[in-house]
Recover the amino acids of this structure.
C-alpha cells in the first residue's frame, strides 16, 4: 500500500477526520497559548515601559521574574498570596470532604430520614454561583469595623462580629468548603454506592465494631477516591476568585487569583502572567497525581455482587436528631442565602431593616440622582438588560459549541481507543479543566490581544468570550460523551454501517438517541457553568460585551450591594431554573456529568 | 448444640413478598441447601438468619436463643449470632493481604499475635494456599480467592456457616473440585452448613437436606434423594434432575379399584400406585412424570418408537425418542449411539413413575406402569 493510499484509507473513517481536526485545533488553543504565556513572562509590555528603564515594548527582560521571586516586594506580592492560596485550598478540602463525605455516608449507608429531599437540596450550593454564599455571609456577618453598614446578624443580636469571622481566611474557607461539599458528596457517594456492601458485612460478621469497620475497611477502600476528590477540590479552590475577592478584599487578604487580577488589570501584566503560570503548573501536577491514583485504583475495583442488598446502619436513638439536623442545615445553606438577597435588594439604606426602609426602587425604580448615581432599577435598566442578554447568549452559544464538539470528541476518542492520537486528544481536551479559570482568561488575553496569522485581534469581541468559554468547558462535555460512548458497543454502529447508512445519519438516528441523557448533560454543564462564571471572563469583557456576573462584581466593588444582590438573585434563578427544567424534561442532571451515579 | 429454627418468617420488600411464611428447622451438623430459581427468596432467607436483613414478621432461634422476633422486637446484631458467611463474590478486602484478611476476625476477638499466626498457618495449610500469604486478593485467581474466603470465614471457628452461591463465579472444573472440598470441610469442621444455590446438581450432590423455594414459598424440605424420587409437586419434579423429567399430559380414570387408566392420543398406559391411594374424579386431567433413566430402550420393549436425536457424551447418551406425537428424553449409559430415524422398542419397567394432578400440580403417587 502506498503512503497516499494509506492516508486515504485513514481519512475515509469519519472518526479519524474528527480526531485529526481536533488535534490541530486543540493544540492551537491549549498548548500554543501556554507557550505565549511563558514568552509573556519575559517580555516588556506597554504599561511597564516606565518601570523598566531603557526598554522597548516586546523586548526580552528578566525583570518580572526577578521582581516576583527575588525582590523586597516578593513576600507581599507573591509568597504571602501563594501561602494564603495553599492554606485556603487545604482548608476548603477539609471542610468540603468532611461535610460532603459525612452526608454521603449518611445517605448511602444509614437509615436517615428525608434522604430524597436532602440529596436534592444538597447539590444546590454547587449549582449556584460560588459567590452566592459569600454574599450571603457578608449580608449576615459584615461588621461596621471595616466600614459600611452592619449585617443582619449584628442587627438582630446586637453582637458585633469580629473581623476574623466576617472577613478573610475563615469565611473564605467556610464558604468555599460549603460550595464544594456537594462535589465531594457526589464523588464519595458514588464510590460508597458502588462499593460492595458485602465487604463491610463480612467484617461485621467477624465481630468487628462499627468504628473498626469504618477505620479498617470502609475508609481504606474509599481512600483513593477520597484522595482524588481532595485533589480536584484543591485545584478548584486554588483557582477560586470571586469568593476571596468578596470576602478577602475588605481586609486586604490576597490570594494568587486576586493578586493576578490586580496585576493583569493594572500596570504589571508580566507579574500576572508569572502567577498564572505558577497556578497552571500546580494544576498540571495535581492532574498527574490524580491520574496516578486513579490508575492504581483499578486494582481496587471490587466486583459488585448483590449491592442492592445493602443493609442500612440503624441510627437508632440518633435517627430523628441527625435527620432533622442535616435537613435543617441543608435548608439553611440553600434557602436562607436567597432570602437574604431578596431582603437586601429591597433595602434603601443598608443596615436598616425597619419596614419603612423597604423599597422596590432597585428593581423597578426609574433612577433618581440621590441613589447610586441615578442608576435605574434592574428590571428597567438597559445596561443590565444588555448584560442579561449577553449572559444568556454567551451561555447558549458556548454550551452548543462545547457540547457538540464534546460529543464528537468523545465519539472519535472512544472509536479509536488505544491509538496514540486518541490518548493525546483525550488529554488535550481535558487540559483546560486543570487551568485555573483566571489564568486561562489571562492566556487568551495574552494570545488574542494582537493579530495572530489570519486571526484578527479579538480583544473586546463576543467571539473571544465564546472561544474561551467553549475551550474551558469542553472537558465537561467530552467526559460525559466518552463515558456514554464507552457504554455503547461498537456493533451498534457497525450494524448500521453494513446496511450502508451514512455517518451523519448514524450519529443522529442511532448514537445520539441512545445516549441522549449523557449528551444532554454534556450541554447542560457548560451552560450552567457559563451562566455563573466570573473569573474566566472578567479579564476579557469590555463594556460592550459585559455579562451579568461581571456587572455583579462591579456593582459590589462600588458598594451598591442592593444591585449586586438583585443581580445575584437573577443569576441563581436562571441557573437553578434551567437545571430543573432540563432535568424534568430529559432526565439529565448536573451530578451525572461530574462522576455521580 | 446449635439448631436453627425459623418460625413463620415473612419478608416483604415494599409490596413484593420475598419470603412467605417460612417455617423450618435446621438441625445441628446438617448441610442444608436453599434451592430455587433466581428471585425465589433463598438469599434473603440466608441473610435473615445471619442478621444482615430484617424479617418483616416471624421469629428466628439459633441454639434455642431467640435472635429475632417481630413480636418482642428482639434483633440481635449479626456479630453476636456466632455465624460465618461466605459471599458469592468472596468480599475479600482488597487492601489487605491474604494473611490480614484471615487474621482480621481473630484480631477482633483479641487473640494474641502468636495464637493468631498459628491459626492462620493451620487454615492456609488446610486450604492449600500457604504460598500466597503476602499477596493481595487482586493478585490471586478466582479459585485461590475462593479458598482465602473460606479460610477467612473458618478462622473464627463458627459453628454455623452460611454460603451464598460460593461456587457460581468459578469455572466448571474448579467448581467440581471445590464441591468435593466443601463436603470434606463439612465433615472436618462438624459445623452446620447452610448453602444457597440455584444449581440443582450442587444441591443434590452436597446437601443432607434440600429446601426448595418458589416465589418465597417452601415447596419441599427433605433429603436430596427423597426430593428426587418423591417430589411433592410438579415444580419440584421439574426443577430437580438433569436432563429434565418427561411430563406427559393424560386423561385418567380409576379402574380395578386402585389402578388408573391413563390415555392420550399417542399413548395409553395403566398406572399402579405404590406409595399412596389415588382418588380422582372421572376423566381427570393428570400429568405423568417419567425420569429419563427410567425409560429402557431394548429389543424386548413393548412400545414402538423412533430415534429423534441423540447427544452422546461418552459416559452416557441422551436419546430423544418419538412415540407417535410425543417426544421423550431417555438416557442410555455407556458409549453407545443410535442412528437418527431408527425404529427402537422401549419399555417402562421401573416402579418410580410419578402421577400429578394437572390443576393443583400436587403429586398423587409413585407407581408402576404397564
Amino acid at each position: 500500500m502506498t503512503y497516499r493510499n494509506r492516508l486515504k484509507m485513514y481519512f475515509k473513517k469519519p472518526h479519524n477526520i474528527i480526531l485529526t481536526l481536533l488535534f490541530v485545533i486543540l493544540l492551537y488553543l491549549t498548548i500554543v497559548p501556554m507557550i505565549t504565556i511563558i514568552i509573556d513572562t519575559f517580555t516588556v509590555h506597554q504599561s511597564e515601559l516606565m518601570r523598566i528603564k531603557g526598554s522597548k515594548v516586546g523586548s526580552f527582560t528578566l525583570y518580572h521574574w526577578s521582581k516576583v521571586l527575588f525582590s523586597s516586594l516578593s513576600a507581599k506580592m507573591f509568597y504571602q498570596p501563594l501561602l494564603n492560596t495553599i492554606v485556603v485550598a487545604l482548608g476548603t478540602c477539609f471542610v468540603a470532604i468532611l461535610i460532603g463525605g459525612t452526608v454521603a455516608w449518611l445517605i448511602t449507608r444509614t437509615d436517615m430520614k428525608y434522604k430524597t429531599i436532602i440529596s436534592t437540596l444538597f447539590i444546590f450550593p454547587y449549582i449556584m454561583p460560588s459567590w452566592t454564599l459569600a454574599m450571603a455571609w457578608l449580608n449576615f456577618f459584615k461588621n461596621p469595623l471595616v466600614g459600611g453598614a452592619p449585617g443582619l446578624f449584628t442587627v438582630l443580636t446586637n453582637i458585633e462580629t469580629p473581623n476574623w469571622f466576617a472577613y478573610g481566611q475563615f469565611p473564605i474557607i467556610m464558604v468555599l468548603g460549603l460550595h464544594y461539599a456537594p462535589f465531594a458528596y457526589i464523588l464519595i457517594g458514588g464510590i460508597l454506592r458502588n462499593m460492595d456492601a458485602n465487604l463491610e458485612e463480612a467484617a461485621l460478621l467477624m465481630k468487628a465494631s462499627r468504628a473498626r469497620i469504618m477505620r479498617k475497611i470502609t475508609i481504606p477502600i474509599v481512600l483513593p477516591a477520597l484522595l482524588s476528590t481532595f485533589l480536584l477540590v484543591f485545584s478548584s479552590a486554588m483557582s477560586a476568585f470571586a469568593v476571596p475577592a468578596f470576602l478577602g478584599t475588605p481586609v486586604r487578604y490576597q490570594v494568587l487569583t486576586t493578586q493576578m487580577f490586580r496585576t493583569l488589570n493594572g500596570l504589571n501584566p508580566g507579574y500576572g502572567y508569572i502567577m498564572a503560570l505558577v497556578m497552571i503548573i500546580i494544576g498540571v501536577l495535581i492532574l498527574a497525581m490524580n491520574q496516578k491514583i486513579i490508575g492504581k485504583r483499578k486494582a481496587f475495583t471490587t466486583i459488585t455482587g448483590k449491592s442492592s442488598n445493602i443493609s442500612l446502619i440503624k441510627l437508632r436513638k440518633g435517627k430523628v436528631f441527625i435527620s432533622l439536623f442535616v435537613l435543617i442545615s441543608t435548608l439553611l445553606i440553600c434557602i436562607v442565602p436567597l432570602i437574604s438577597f431578596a431582603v437586601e435588594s429591597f433595602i434603601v439604606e443598608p443596615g436598616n431593616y425597619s419596614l419603612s426602609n423597604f423599597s422596590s426602587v432597585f428593581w423597578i425604580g426609574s433612577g433618581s440622582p440621590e441613589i447610586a448615581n441615578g442608576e435605574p432599577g434592574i428590571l428597567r435598566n438597559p445596561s443590565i438588560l444588555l448584560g442579561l442578554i449577553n449572559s444568556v447568549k454567551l451561555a447558549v452559544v458556548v454550551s452548543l459549541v462545547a457540547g457538540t464538539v464534546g460529543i464528537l470528541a468523545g465519539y472519535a476518542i472512544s472509536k479509536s481507543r488505544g491509538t496514540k492520537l486518541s490518548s493525546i486528544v483525550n488529554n488535550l481536551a481535558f487540559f483546560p479543566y486543570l487551568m485555573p479559570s483566571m489564568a486561562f482568561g489571562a492566556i487568551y488575553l495574552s494570545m488574542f490581544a494582537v493579530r495572530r496569522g489570519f486571526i484578527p485581534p479579538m480583544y473586546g469581541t463576543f467571539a473571544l468570550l465564546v472561544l474561551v468559554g467553549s475551550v474551558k468547558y469542553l472537558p465537561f462535555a467530552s467526559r460525559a460523551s466518552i463515558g456514554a460512548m464507552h457504554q455503547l458497543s461498537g456493533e451498534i454502529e457497525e450494524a448500521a454501517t453494513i446496511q450502508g447508512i451514512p455517518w451523519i445519519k448514524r450519529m443522529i438516528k442511532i448514537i445520539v438517541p441512545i445516549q441522549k441523557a449523557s449528551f444532554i448533560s454534556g450541554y447542560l454543564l457548560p451552560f450552567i457553568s457559563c451562566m455563573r462564571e466570573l473569573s474566566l471572563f472578567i479579564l476579557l469583557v469590555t463594556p460592550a460585551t459585559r455579562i451579568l456576573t461581571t456587572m455583579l462584581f462591579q456593582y459590589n466593588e462600588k458598594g451598591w450591594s442592593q444591585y449586586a444582590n438583585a443581580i445575584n438573585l437573577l443569576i441563581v434563578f436562571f441557573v437553578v431554573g434551567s437545571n430543573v427544567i432540563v432535568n424534568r424534561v430529559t432526565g439529565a442532571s448536573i451530578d451525572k456529568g461530574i462522576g455521580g451515579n | 448444640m446449635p439448631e436453627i429454627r425459623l418460625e413463620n418468617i415473612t419478608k416483604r420488600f415494599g409490596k413484593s413478598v420475598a419470603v412467605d411464611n417460612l417455617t423450618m428447622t435446621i438441625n445441628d451438623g446438617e448441610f442444608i441447601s436453599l434451592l430455587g430459581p433466581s428471585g425465589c427468596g433463598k438469599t434473603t432467607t440466608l441473610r435473615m438468619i445471619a442478621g444482615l436483613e430484617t424479617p418483616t414478621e416471624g421469629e428466628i432461634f439459633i441454639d434455642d436463643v431467640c435472635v429475632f422476633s417481630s413480636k418482642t422486637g428482639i434483633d440481635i446484631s449479626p456479630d453476636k449470632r456466632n455465624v460465618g458467611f461466605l459471599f458469592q463474590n468472596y468480599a475479600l478486602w482488597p487492601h489487605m493481604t491474604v494473611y490480614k484478611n484471615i487474621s482480621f476476625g481473630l484480631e477482633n476477638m483479641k487473640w494474641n499475635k502468636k495464637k493468631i499466626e498459628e491459626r492462620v498457618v493451620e487454615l492456609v495449610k488446610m486450604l492449600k494456599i500457604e504460598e500466597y500469604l503476602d499477596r493481595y486478593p487482586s493478585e490471586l485467581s478466582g479459585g485461590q480467592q475462593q479458598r482465602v474466603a473460606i479460610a477467612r470465614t473458618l478462622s473464627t471457628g463458627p459453628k454455623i456457616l452460611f454460603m451464598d452461591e460460593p461456587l457460581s463465579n468459578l469455572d466448571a472444573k474448579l467448581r467440581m473440585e471445590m464441591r468435593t472440598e466443601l463436603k470434606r470441610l463439612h465433615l472436618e469442621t462438624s459445623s452446620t452448613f447452610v448453602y444457597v444455590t440455584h444449581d440443582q446438581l450442587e444441591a443434590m450432590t452436597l446437601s443432607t437436606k434440600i429446601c426448595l423455594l418458589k416465589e418465597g414459598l417452601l415447596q419441599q424440605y427433605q433429603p436430596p434423594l427423597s426430593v428426587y424420587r418423591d417430589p411433592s409437586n410438579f415444580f419440584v419434579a421439574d426443577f430437580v434432575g438433569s436432563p429434565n423429567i418427561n411430563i406427559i399430559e393424560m386423561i385418567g380414570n380409576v379402574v380395578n379399584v386402585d389402578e388408573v387408566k391413563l390415555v392420550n392420543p399417542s399413548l395409553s398406559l395403566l398406572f399402579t400406585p405404590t406409595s399412596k391411594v389415588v382418588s380422582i374424579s372421572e376423566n381427570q386431567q393428570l400429568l405423568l412424570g417419567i425420569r429419563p433413566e427410567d425409560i429402557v430402550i431394548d429389543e424386548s420393549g413393548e412400545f414402538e418408537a423412533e430415534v429423534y436425536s441423540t447427544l452422546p457424551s461418552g459416559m452416557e447418551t441422551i436419546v430423544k425418542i418419538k412415540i407417535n406425537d410425543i417426544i421423550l428424553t431417555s438416557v442410555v449409559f455407556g458409549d453407545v449411539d443410535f442412528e437418527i430415524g431408527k425404529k427402537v422398542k422401549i419399555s417402562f419397567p421401573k416402579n418410580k413413575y410419578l402421577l400429578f394432578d394437572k390443576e393443583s400440580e400436587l403429586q398423587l403417587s409413585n407407581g408402576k406402569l404397564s
Notes: Confidence is low (pLDDT under 50) at residues 297-308, 592-597 of chain A. The interface with chain B takes residues 196, 198-199, 201-209, 212, 216-217, 220-221, 223, 299-300, 302-306, 309, 311 of chain A (CB under 8 Å). DSSP finds 27 helices and no strands in chain A. Chain A has two domains: 11-31+382-597, 73-365.
